[in-house]
Automatic annotation (TrEMBL), chains A, B:
Name the UniProt record assigns to this protein: Helix-turn-helix domain-containing protein
Transmembrane segments: none
Transferase listed as a keyword: no
Stored PANTHER family: HTH-TYPE TRANSCRIPTIONAL REGULATOR YODB (PTHR33204:SF37), TRANSCRIPTIONAL REGULATOR, MARR FAMILY (PTHR33204)
Domain (HTH hxlR-type): residue spans on this chain: 23-121
Keyword hit for Transcription regulation: yes
Any Pfam family: HxlR
Keywords: DNA-binding, Transcription, Transcription regulation
Length: 139, 139
DNA sequence: CCAGCTAGCTCACCTTTAGTAAGTAGCTTT
DNA sequence: AAAGCTACTTACTAAAGGTGAGCTAGCTGG
């Protein structure tokens, strides 16, 4: 098993103070890796999108939350906001170079969940089954 | 600039349906990568911890949220919960093999934020300065 | 000339989730 | 008998998020 090796590598990479509440990188991570923030960036990996395209692509997001999260990402310098002064105006969002560099680790994380979703589902089912047996045994 | 290359690599790795609201991996990612879930796993990378140790280590978390998130992670099969029936009882939490494999991409993401926190802080400051100038110009 | 259409938001209202503080169990030490 | 320890719950409150309606501004069809 290579588990311990991976753990050691991960440990050395880990920023020492991410667990400290006053750490700036933790505050920024909280702002960016929200429920919708990661999905918006994931959608923009495929290329620039307009507001309504993102609204359709990021399934389930409300316009309010899309607008709010885009503002945060633009302010953080991860996303560009380009307005074409046509009528009605066309607003296009795209990743900045910094946003692109974030896309790599973020995509690996998403990829991990794609690979391990079924494993987690099984673990959850097993856990629930065991809990059910225990509560049944108590009666 | 290698931005486009990174983007292409990221695009191919990206699970096709993470943006779909019915996708199971998205539901699971929502459960695990919460504000505290990532930090708890990050803390456990360094080795097993007891409840009170985690409470001290993950700065700012309440006992309620620690308990709740640990339950979720245990149910997902990412964290082990071992009870020593001493008095008072000692409960030790540690990463499962699946938890260890998640630690790798998660650590890379945390590492990215460690590297780019200052860049984002600058971008935010620049963005706010520009907004201030614009609103000043309007008067 | 003016109602209607469009994209990209913004606002008011309500529900769900997270945070705070206090309480609980069972046993030990003082 | 009183206080403390660990690992939690529970009740209450604050913040985040969801829903649906409305707004802007100019162009187009009637």
């Amino acid at each position: 098993m290579t588990g311990d090796d991976e753990l050691a590598v991960a440990g050395t990479l880990l920023a020492a103070d991410i667990l400290d509440r006053t750490c700036t990188s933790r505050a920024i991570m909280d702002q960016v890796t929200t429920r919708w923030g990661t999905l918006i960036i994931a959608a923009l990996i495929k290329g620039p999108h307009r507001f309504s395209q993102l609204h359709a692509r990021v399934d389930g997001i409300s316009q309010k939350m899309l607008s709010h999260n885009l503002k945060t990402l633009v302010r953080a310098g991860l996303v560009n906001r380009d307005v074409e002064p046509t009528v009605p105006p066309q607003v296009t969002y795209s990743l900045t170079p910094m946003g692109v560099s974030l896309a790599t680790p973020l995509t690996q994380l998403i990829h991990w969940f794609g690979q391990n979703a079924s494993g987690i589902l099984e673990a959850q089912a097993g856990h629930d089954r065991q809990a059910g047996e225990l509560s049944a045994a108590r009666h």
